């Protein structure tokens, strides 16, 4: 019965923790429908208020509206990525158009828009603080950018397109989720050459979980895919696995080729309705970059600086591979990880397997928590009573130095069939100040796909996985340290090209001896990482930096190309992608291989015309870390300034304003170049 729906009652849990043991899939639809109705009633109340429209009775009221719906979707959406069975996916397909129509009906509500516009036109900025001013600006701009100024047929068409786009992005996302588990590479005894014991154990466990103890199983999940590509001496199998990965969603029931074209064309038509020539022009108005030209200026500057170094790296790697094999070798995409790992090992006597025993997941977790304690005074205490959405999820209560509640943190480490690949942070509840002045603290979840423990070994991470953990933890800190009035501006609700700054900032610590010494020790002997090994790790940190940058630039060029079209595209998706990335491609295109068909970041994950933001943010965070290096990487005064001026302020002011308040100047690209060992070319990008 609807009266028994958990979302309609107080959870009655400590800190508002989600009672997953009392939530069923059947609860979501009635809760979403009732949440929509309540939200509509609240909107009607704002419109029906006979008093003169004011900031508080219109703008703040609008920000507060929809609490029940937010409560439901705050659980529903994270579960779609982290723990979605067929029933939940089918439900999301039914709910997507309903939700799209609901939110469109708000931004296209003429009476509501008239009140918002009235408040905007009569807004006295001197009577409000910076956060109020930002909420006013964001609310007004949000309506304009969602078609509030459109009339007649244009308004109706926008509504249709918005609904269509929601359906398309959901289909793209679900196709990617359903396609990945279909690819399996089964190995026999003679297929294991070159693989380390840790990988063999993981592949054996994966096969066992599938009911087979006579084989080994490799999947496309990162902890499975990456070690195979890096270590397997079987070039034919590396090629096979590479093509599996890069042909996802290009044919069959879960083909995304037509879907992604439709997404790009739909976004273009929506942008045109808004008076922009391309979706990129429309989207970038609400970023630090502001224009496509600024994005391309940055991409081209980095291309010019990094590409010559990348070409030199590839020539050296080709010579190395030829020497190893005793014959000329033409490096192909499935060879890069294999030979670069060997070359790096030969140059620095360092590889993932040497380091992996020192990065047992439990100790890494404590090291990551210890970082937050030293920097920001946070404490993390395991909460064994909180309900979880999957048995191996861990929950921690987070407090400050005075014992005051900061929030809750959920850690979801391992792959499963109902979980998307990759790593991300999201929140079941974001921070804000409620109508009674209470500081509602966030419930944050970190989702990753690390190697599961086996019957004989705990989960042992690679250095890159430690980096991933620290990256996502940076997003979590952005949420946990938030001190904002309005939910829509708190935590990570910032410009897309700024949101990665706190996360990428954290990655710097992985290559700092002082951080590694705080937790890294051998899982069997307890021995600290030998100093010589740390020295070699730090010496190797610039290896492959140019290749990694150029590869990232390729993704950025592909993203910008799809979202800079000025006419609908109905041509070949493979040709389009190859043309987009041609100037930075490290290898000749492989027939049938593509990234666009499963590039969820840009086609369903919010990074459309925004993937460049990773490099943009990298420029900023490297400049920020320079400040720490000058004063000490764990200097509490510098950390307090970073938290006060950046992490705690969310999107309450323009990112550049917040950053300059911390740093004293705009970010400079030199720090990133120095870190990567790249000589700075003429020109500068801000």
The unreliable regions are 682-686
Estimated share of beta-strand residues: 5-15%
SS summary, helix count: 27
Mean pLDDT: 95
Structural class: mainly alpha
- Across the major sheet, the strand order is 3-4-5-9-6
The number of distinct β-strands equals 9
Global Rg: 25 Å
Global geometry: globular
Distance between the termini: 57 Å
The biggest beta sheet is recorded as:
5 strands, mixed
- What share of residues is helical? 40-55%
Which helices and strands occur, and which strands form pairs?
Layout (H helix, E strand, L loop, with lengths): L24 H24 L6 H10 L2 H16 L3 H22 L2 H12 L8 H16 L6 H28 L4 E4 L9 H13 L6 E4 L2 H10 L3 H12 L10 H17 L5 H5 L8 H34 L10 H13 L3 H4 L5 H16 L2 E4 L11 E6 L5 E8 L11 E6 L2 E2 L5 E2 L2 E5 L15 H18 L20 H7 L5 H4 L14 H9 L5 H19 L9 H9 L18 H4 L9 H19 L4 H12 L7 H9 L6 H7 L10
Parallel strand pairs: 5-9
Antiparallel strand pairs: 1-2, 3-4, 4-5, 6-9, 7-8
Helix pairs in contact: 1-2, 1-3, 1-4, 4-7, 5-6, 7-11, 9-14, 13-21, 16-17, 17-18, 18-24, 21-22, 24-27, 25-26
Quick summary of this structure?
By secondary structure, the chain is mostly helical.
Overview of the molecule:
- It is built from 27 helices and 9 strands.
- The longest helix has 34 residues, at 292-325.
- It has helices at residues 25-48, 55-64, 67-82, 86-107, 110-121, 130-145, 152-179, 197-209, 222-231, 235-246, 257-273, 279-283, 292-325, 336-348, 352-355, 361-376, 463-480, 501-507, 513-516, 531-539, 545-563, 573-581, 600-603, 613-631, 636-647, 655-663, 670-676; strands at residues 184-187, 216-219, 379-382, 394-399, 405-412, 424-429, 432-433, 439-440, 443-447.
- It has a 5-stranded mixed beta sheet.
- Residues 682-686 have low confidence and may be disordered.
- It has 686 residues and is mostly helical.
